[in-house]
Amino acid sequence: MLREVWTMWKYTKMVVLVAVSAAFYAALVIPLKIVTIVPGITEFRPGAVVPVVFGLLFGPAGAWGAAFGNIINDFFGTLGIGSVGGFVGNFFYGLVGYKLWASMGLANSREDLAIDSGKKTLNFILIAILSSLVCAEVVAWWLEVVRLLPFAVIGPIIALNNALACLVLGVPLMRLLYRRLNRWDLVWFAIMDERDRPKGPSPKVGAVLIWAGVLGGFVVGISISLGATEAVPFTFGTGATTPSVALGVTPFLVMLIVGCLLA
């Protein structure tokens, strides 16, 4: 279920954490907008570690903070129709981590965030990779819908950009922040009542659907975008936007959303 995404707004601390997450994300990303990867769309982002780490620590506040932080960042040169996909993609970027943390058999509970073993380090690495692919899939799908960029061009760039930041900086940042924030009762599960953050009805099934929706959608999106399904010779690899990409990826996005509701 995603009840906590809405009930969190009645907690003053959670609202403050949305603002803190958004400001911190934007503050780390904006100074590097000059290091452009795709003009008007994306840039080098070591600050991309923030949504994953803050999503785990602050739960839905981290997810909303990632979405609003990305919009703030876009105001400094890249605001446009593509920002809609950026808002949603970054929301899911911060969301899937806390939804899946305890659903893959590598951590005991959503509250078990201390990365003090090889299993939980592996858990974080998997979360980082999956979250990066989620963001890339949603953003690339939207840019296909509005005919701005082909999925095969922007999807891998966003995924790699995000994943590198998370894999290099994520574990040290979690170790630096978690115990302090937990001691100060500033982690999301210490702030919200349990009734306002219920576990999903089927976390394991939800986890499978999220992984299938992300990996399947990413592979299908890239394949169609490259022309792998075209019968016309020499269209493979042309990298043009096409409605078939958006249509092909949509069922996997639905699978992702259902998975989040169940996890």
Automatic annotation (TrEMBL):
Database matches in InterPro entries: QueT
Protein name: QueT transporter family protein
Cited Gene3D superfamilies: 1.10.1760.20
Transmembrane regions listed in the UniProt entry: 14-36, 48-69, 75-101, 122-143, 149-173, 205-224, 244-262
Position of the signal peptide: none
Keyword Transmembrane helix: yes
Alphabetically ordered keywords of this record: Membrane, Transmembrane, Transmembrane helix
Coiled coil spans: none
Pfam families (UniProt xref): QueT
